[in-house]
């Protein structure tokens, strides 16, 4: 009887420990995060979506943990200068990186001497936000739908071209993936940035372009651009009248612009989980959602493990496209 009672006490103690452990880990993570100031690195200039998200985080972390939280815009080398600072930082949760998808999923394959190993040098915390992309055409092209575009490209090979912000950009690769999945060929016309590319499509110099939906929606609404299809699995709430490419029979072109939060390697798992939780709560605030909406973004928080899997999956997709199309960074 006494032995049975002793075993019951042991099991009860173990159960209590198992229940208390996650709470204790969370408490320890919060204590660690409250111990020092934060640096949020944005490897791109102020004013864009990466900077906006970095500032949302810095303001939220400062309020939550009572510590200073600064944003450092470390620009240069296609984002690699800022990324390198975070790689070399101490993994304690106080130096963080906000970065667009391309730096994590495209550049490792595109750049022959890419200086980072994303899986070994960093710990994925969470996706922060995303924005849909859309295939648009100049009205002077006469193209009204993605199905019509594919039919014309097959009937007259090499007769159509598409603009992009530059070789290896996410929008360039969206075009290459579209060509691959649709079984057509289009001439790529690279520009130095989105604005000049979009201007030439608006002017009819180049008939087609993949672009960010928020940047092009005003032109779609006033008839200066024709929306051929969005590159997401479902229609965008911002433009429900625009069909997806998948609806038009072009599968496998789910290309979304997104932005993520990473920490240096060695950051404790409990701290990573706490930061992901903090970010999700910050992004869910109504005023923050409005702020993101002004940049054409929606919050897209996810668990660290799910975010890590997403990075791996997209990296594999873009590696196939880059190698199949023999794309080399300029």
Q: Brief description of this entry?
A:
The chain is of the alpha/beta class.
Provide a descriptive summary of the structure in words.
Helix content is 48%, strand content 18%. It has 330 residues and is of the alpha/beta class. It has 2 domains: 28-130 and 256-324, D-Maltodextrin-Binding Protein, domain 2, CATH 3.40.190; 132-248, Periplasmic binding protein-like II (D-Maltodextrin-Binding Protein, domain 2, 3-Layer(aba) Sandwich), CATH 3.40.190.10. Strands 1, 2, 3, 4, 5, 6, 7, 8, 9 and 10 form a 10-stranded mixed sheet that branches. The mean pLDDT is 89.
Architecture blueprint of SSEs:
Layout: H1 2-33, E1 38-42, H2 49-65, E2 69-73, H3 80-88, E3 95-100, H4 101-105, H5 107-110, H6 118-121, E4 122-137, H7 146-155, E5 161-164, H8 170-182, E6 187-190, H9 194-202, E7 208-212, H10 213-221, E8 226-230, E9 256-264, H11 269-283, H12 286-294, E10 298-299, H13 304-324
Parallel strand pairs: 1-2, 1-3, 5-6, 5-7
Antiparallel strand pairs: 3-9, 4-7, 4-8, 4-9, 4-10
Helix pairs in contact: 1-11, 2-11
């Amino acid at each position: 009887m006494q032995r049975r009672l002793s075993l019951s006490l042991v099991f009860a103690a173990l159960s209590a420990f198992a229940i208390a452990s996650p709470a204790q880990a969370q408490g320890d993570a919060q204590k660690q995060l409250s111990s020092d100031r934060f640096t949020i690195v944005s490897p791109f200039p102020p004013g864009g979506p990466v900077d906006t998200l970095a500032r949302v985080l810095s303001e939220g972390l400062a309020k939550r943990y009572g510590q200073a939280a600064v944003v450092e815009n470390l620009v240069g080398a296609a984002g690699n200068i800022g990324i390198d600072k975070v790689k070399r930082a101490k993994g304690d949760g106080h130096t963080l990186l906000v970065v667009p998808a391309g730096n994590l999923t495209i550049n490792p394959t595109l750049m022959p001497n890419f200086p980072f190993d994303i899986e070994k040098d960093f710990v994925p915390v969470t996706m922060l936000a995303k924005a849909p992309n859309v295939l648009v055409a100049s009205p002077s092209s006469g193209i009204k739908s993605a199905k019509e575009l594919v039919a014309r490209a097959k009937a007259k090979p090499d007769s159509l071209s598409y603009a992009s912000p530059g070789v290896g950009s996410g929008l360039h690769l969206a075009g290459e993936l579209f060509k691959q999945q649709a079984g057509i060929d289009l001439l790529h016309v690279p520009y130095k940035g989105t604005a000049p590319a979009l201007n030439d499509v608006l002017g009819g110099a180049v008939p087609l372009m993949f672009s960010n939906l928020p940047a092009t929606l005003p032109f779609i609404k006033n008839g200066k651009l024709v929306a051929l299809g969005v590159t997401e699995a479902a229609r965008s709430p911002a433009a429900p009248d625009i069909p997806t490419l998948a609806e038009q029979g072009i599968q496998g072109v789910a290309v979304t612009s997104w932005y993520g939060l990473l920490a240096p390697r060695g950051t404790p798992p409990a701290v990573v989980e706490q930061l992901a939780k903090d970010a999700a709560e910050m992004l869910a605030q109504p005023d923050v959602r409005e702020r993101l909406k002004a940049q054409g973004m929606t919050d897209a928080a996810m668990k660290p493990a799910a975010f890590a899997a997403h990075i791996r999956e997209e990296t594999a997709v873009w590696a196939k496209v880059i190698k199949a199309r023999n794309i080399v960074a300029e």
